[in-house]
Each structure stands twice: as structure tokens, then as C-alpha cells.
Amino acid sequence: MKTNIIRNIVALVAASGLLTACGIYKSYERPEDIQAPDQYRMDNMAEVKADADSLGPAFALASADLGTIQDSNHLGFMPWKEMFPDPKLQYLIQKGLDSNFDLRNAVLQVRQMQALLAKARLSFTPSLNVSGTEGFNGIIDMADPQNTFGIGASASWEIDIFGKLLNAKRGAVADFLQSDAARRSAQTQIISSIASAYYSLLMLDKQLEISEQTVENWKKTITMMESMKEAGSYAAYNQAAIEQAKANSMAVRAGIPDLKRQIRELENSLALLVGMPGQPIDRNRFEDQEIPAQFSVGVPSQMFLNRPDVMAAEAQLMSAYASTAAARAAFLPGFNITASGNWTNAAGTAILDPAKFVWQAVASLALPIFNQGANRANLRVAKAGQEIAANNFKQTLLNAANEVSNALFQYQTSGAKCQYRTEQIASLEKAVDFTTQLMQLGSTTYLEVLTAQQSLLSAQLSQVSDQYERMNSVISLYRALGGGSQEEIEGVDYENLDSPKAVRKRTKAAEKQVKALIKQEKAEAKAAKRQKS
Length: 533
Prior knowledge:
Order of helices and strands: HHHHHEEHHHHEEHHH
Strand order of the largest sheet: 1-2-3-4
Radius of gyration: 37 Å
Number of helices: 12
Structural class: alpha+beta
Strand content: 5-15%
Number of strands: 4
């Protein structure tokens, strides 16, 4: 007897070890072949900066650096209120976060997943039901019917020996993480979209201001030319020159209605984005805006911790991993324990007096036999789904790194354009002054003056567009780094998504990864220092 017991124990331990090796109990770990790139693409960026810096110290181009994971100036971890200090823009962003229907739905979906996760956790506990009955037993045309009653309770419990419930819970955790990542993605998209639209509105305001000021300048010029013509002071101020000046003034004026239309349409679009009907938008001036001039973008591995689409892709892989483990567990038996008790006076057709307590306890083991083919098909489907999720995860990492690289280069090139444009406008302003003086002296024609003025107006409008592009490149970089997505939903427990042991394991793994990155950065810094010396 003892020998049989020992054999059964050994067999159970061996089976448990085999099942663990098959991946039924093993928790998800990120595959070793899924890694973020070591660095963002940085080639040619130094050349762009050097070209801008060559204009002199006044035009030195501020640049973003890779920084370190300990850098408090990391753009992706910067709260959006620090990123966008304009109070009126902050009001619009907050209103958008509070009112946007897509974000509201994303939050509700997170709460749905939280409820499903709670349901998955409760599947480990027994179910308990209480019932009460009352009736009558009797035979027609015979004695009076007898009153019967019963008060009972029943319980059932599925013992999760083979990981079926465990993997269902892990899948629920992954689904929760995926829904929360989608919510974070919607949040950072809303923040960046509102900021971009706001700056675009300020850009149009500035271009309208420049155009209206140019029209006023043309009015003064035309008045002066007509006065000079009537006085006969300068031969250059003939009727042809005056008509050409009026035509140029009308050309500038003709563009003003289009700018006003664009401003109105953008105001309505921005109002809709923040959940308001179309209306004027209270805003500050374009030249008063501030964006971070110096910041760090960190290292690509930080995208695992901060970028929502990367989080969602890994959560999808976690869910697929749990589905594969659950498909393997379907080949194994299910173990259930049921128990019931009933205080009743009914014993079949007999009536007990007094009532008695009747109980029953049953343990059952169900092993699938005729559906093994279906289970094998389900396992193949789950494995294929896991491979698809892994490929999507890899692709998401590459796309994320490319987006950051593109945004970084856009930031550098837009900065260089702003520096070049400033130098161009300074030269054109001098050209307008010189040609005007030469025409007054009779050394040149009015055409050269008009050409210089048109070139100056075009450059001034382009400068505003370049400055907006510079601002928008920082917004794009902020979004590419997952900025603005760190806020958590009130009332949602993010700390206890799994068992305390699993949480500690993930925390230690993250700490180990951070320490390794710090060590790598220190080694690279020492190597660079040695090369310089």
C-alpha cells in the first residue's frame, strides 16, 4: 500500500515537471530575439547642426541628445503641463482629456477589462449556491397531500492542477494591459493633436498679422509715390510704377480672406477636438510660445516602459502566450469537487418526521478523449497566433525607433531652416532699404524695389511656417517617445495585476535591465573619454 502511494506521488511530481517544461505553468518572459535597437539613427545630424552653427554663435543650433535613462530631462517622461507651459493651451488639453469621446470609451474599456480580470481571479475560488423548496406530495383520490420542504446549499470547486484557470487569468491580465495601452495611446494622441492644432492656429494668426501689416506698408508707399509723382520730384515715380505697386498691394490683400477662412475652420476643428461646438478659441501670441530647447530622448530600450503601442504589442504577445498554454492544458484532465447538503423532510415518496440533513460529496476527473483532434487544431492555431504576435511586436519596435529617428532629424533640420531663414530676412530687409534709396536717387527702377519687397514678404511668411515646423517637430518627438501617457486611471489597481511573487519578479527584471543599461552607458562614456585623451 505504501509503495503504491509513493509511486503515485513520484508520478504526480514527474507529470508536474513535464507540464512545466511544456509551458503550461511557465509565466511569460520576453523572447531574447525581441530587442529594441541599440541606438536611434543619428547619422547626418551632426552635419546639419554644424552647417547652422557655421553662421556664428548667434545662430548656434540647440540640439537633442541621447541622454541617459537617469536623465530627469527625458522628453518622453516629461509631464504634458511642463511640455506645454502656455496656460491657455493647458486649458484646452485638459478639456480635451475630460471631454473627448474616444478617450472616454478607452477608459471604459479599461474598466471592462478590469472587471473581466476580477472575474478570472474569482474562478480560483469555489462557487456556493443556497436554495429553498416547499411543495406537496400526494395521490389523487387518496389521503390529503403531505407538505414537503427543504433548505439546502451546494458548492463546486474546479481544482486548477493543470493551469487552465491560471492561463485564463494571465490572458485576462494581458487583455487589461492591452486595453490600458490603447487608452494611453489615445491620450498622447489627443494631447499632441490639440497642441499641434493650437500652434497651427497661432501660426495663421502671425501670418495674418504680417499680411495686414504689409498691406498697410503698401498703402503708405503708394501714397508717398503719388505725392512724389504730383510734385515731380522723382522721375522713377511714374504712373506705371504706382499701378504696379497697387497690384502688389491687392495681391497681398487677396490672400487675407483665405487666411481668415483657414483660421475659422481651424478654430472649429480645435473646438470639436476638445468637445465644444465651433467657436472662437482664446489663445496667446505665436512669438510668446516656449518649447524645450535642450532635452534627452533616452535609449531605445526605454520604449518598452513608456511607448503605448510597444506596450500594447507586448501585451498582445503575452495574451497569445497564455492562449498557447491554455491550448496545451486542454489535453489534460479537469478535476472538480462538488458537495451539497439539504435539510429536508422528503425522502423520495416518503415523508420524514422529523426532517433530516442529507449530504453528498463527489470528486470527478474528466479527461478529453474524442476531441483530441480539435484540441490539436486549437494548439496549432494558438501557436500560429503567438508567432504572429511576436512578429507584430518586432515590427512595432522597428516602427517606433524609426518614428523617433525621423522626429529627431525633423527637429534638427527645422532648426537649421529657422537659422537660415533669419539670415535671409536680415539680408532682404537690407535689400529693400538699399533699393528704395537707390530708386530715390534715380539709380534703379521701381521693379527692383517691388521684387525685394515681395521676396521679404515671402520670407517672413516662410519664417513663421519654419518656426511652426520646429514646434511641431518637438510635438512629434514627444508623441513618438510616448509623452503624456503616464497618467493612470483613478480607482484602477495597477500594482496587483498578478500574484505578489510575479510582481516582484517583473520588478527585479526591470531593475536588472536598468542597471545593465547604466553600466553600458558608463562604459561607453569611459571609452569615449579615453579616445579624446
